[in-house]
Write a structure and sequence with these properties.
30% of the residues lie in helices and 15% in strands. By secondary structure, the protein is of the alpha+beta class. The chain is globular.
């Protein structure tokens, strides 16, 4: 987690115009695109379809008006002898068939149900013993004796000869296993704020690189009720006591360290995006296809330079043989306040409603209450997380308080090109986070 580099890498992707495009420019865009992924065993028709597919997420299928405009643009570029019968149906068919979908049910370790996980806590709950805690405290004390700048803390600065092997296994569990783990037993009630933050960031440094979580450049976030109004379109829901609803964060992994829990409520919930897809595919395959369409999601006022106030990435993305999700329903709904944002059709709303309904199914999701000293790490690309609304303590010193890390993980999966809109860069190990003009990385305690 060496953040000493002078600049935070930020990519400013070029955005496709919303205006009409000609058939020739469409052809140039397709022929210039990188070769699509071919998998051994693909049928000739599947390979042909892969070459026909656009290699980005910049389309708006299902929009009759767009189909008509594209058809008109294509017909105008054809020789006049071809213009008598513009192939509206073939184009409409192409728009639907061009979606890159999983070939069937997805059977991977991350495709779990909450019922299964609740019965086998040994698969995701790890108790730190006294030797583990002593090693963490020694590493933190040693670092603080040399430096007070936690933002400069790297893996090399935080030696963990005993725990390092488990943290390597944890990284693999996140990106290729069940996608989450809870480390329990850190005695945070005996630590200063600086000591808790140093241990948490030190563990994070063994997993990946920390990313900015907001426009202020905070690489260590504070999740607590600040009194912000959730109805304000610039408020991020973690700043309130209201339920967050199931969502992903804008980094490979999100980590939480519980310092203090609420008087009532505030449970953490997890659900598998892969399991939701599998269930939707069985129940309503017509609706699950719509979740692979680009959709506008509100940035809530934290807009990178040169970008729109919303990004347009599908909820579900099938890329390099992996299903990757990105989701926040409240922000999808609030993006409709922008006149230029693509409108949600009734069918898309129905698909999102079913997605939410499945996420909230107690048979599918896992509920847990994080105790002080618990560290939870969650893989955003295959899981969604949520926090129930809570009632806090009257005493301000006892109120619910979590520290948060967003991490970019080395050796992680590739992401589709359209993720540049939100992640800035899609380079493995150096992507994700929120960077706007003037952002400077820092660690507020």
């Amino acid at each position: 987690m060496d953040l000493r580099r002078g600049e935070h890498p930020v990519c400013h992707p070029e955005h496709a115009s919303d205006g009409e495009v000609s058939a020739r420019s469409e052809l140039r865009a397709r022929t210039a695109a990188p070769a699509p992924l071919m998998r051994e065993g693909d049928s000739p028709s599947a390979r042909a379809a892969a070459w026909r597919r656009p290699q980005n997420c910049r389309r708006r299928p299902g929009k009759a008006g767009l189909i008509i405009r594209l058809t008109t643009a294509i017909s105008r570029s054809w020789p006049s002898t071809w213009r008598k019968s513009p192939p509206i149906q073939p184009l409409e068919s192409f728009m639907r068939e061009s979606i890159d979908l999983p070939p069937g049910q997805i059977e991977i370790p991350a495709a779990w149900t909450g019922e299964e996980m609740a019965k086998h806590a040994e698969n995701w709950l790890v108790e730190l013993d006294k030797q583990d805690v002593a090693e963490l405290e020694l590493a933190a004390t040693g670092f603080l004796a040399r430096s007070q700048d936690i933002g400069n803390l790297s893996k090399a600065d935080f030696p963990l000869p005993r725990l390092a092997g488990h943290l390597t296994a944890l990284r693999e569990k996140l990106i290729a296993g069940i996608g989450f783990e809870v480390l329990r037993g850190l005695p945070v009630e005996t630590y200063s704020a600086q000591m808790s933050a140093t241990i948490f960031c030190g563990i994070g440094a063994h997993l990946g690189g920390a990313r900015s979580q907001n426009a202020q450049g905070h690489i260590l976030g504070h999740v607590r009720d600040t009194g912000a109004d959730a109805r304000d379109a610039t408020t991020r829901i973690y700043q309130t006591a209201e339920r967050q609803t199931f969502h992903t964060d804008s980094a490979d992994v999100v980590g939480l360290l519980c310092l203090k829990d609420a008087m009532q409520g505030g449970e953490s919930l997890l659900v598998s995006t892969v399991t939701i897809y599998n269930e939707m595919r069985k129940r309503r395959p017509d609706l699950v296809r719509l979740l692979f369409d680009p959709i506008a999601t509100d940035r809530r006022g934290e807009v990178p330079e040169g970008e729109k106030p919303y990004f347009e990435i599908p909820v579900l993305n099938w890329h390099a043989g992996l299903l990757t999700g990105i989701y926040q329903r409240q922000y999808i709904d609030s993006a409709q306040r922008f006149p230029a944002a693509m409108r949600l059709s009734p069918a898309h709303v129905e698909a999102l409603d079913l997605f939410d309904s499945l996420a909230n199914d107690p048979k599918l999701n896992l509920s847990m209450r994080l105790r002080p000293g618990d560290m939870q790490f969650v893989y955003n690309h295959s899981l969604l997380h949520d926090r129930m609304g809570f009632r806090d303590w009257p005493d301000s010193d006892k109120r619910r308080h979590m520290l948060r890390l967003w991490l970019s993980i080395p050796g992680d999966r590739p992401l589709p090109e359209c993720f540049r809109q939100r992640y800035g860069s899609i380079e493995v190990g150096d992507r994700g986070g929120i960077i706007v003009k003037g952002t400077r990385l820092n660690v507020p305690l």
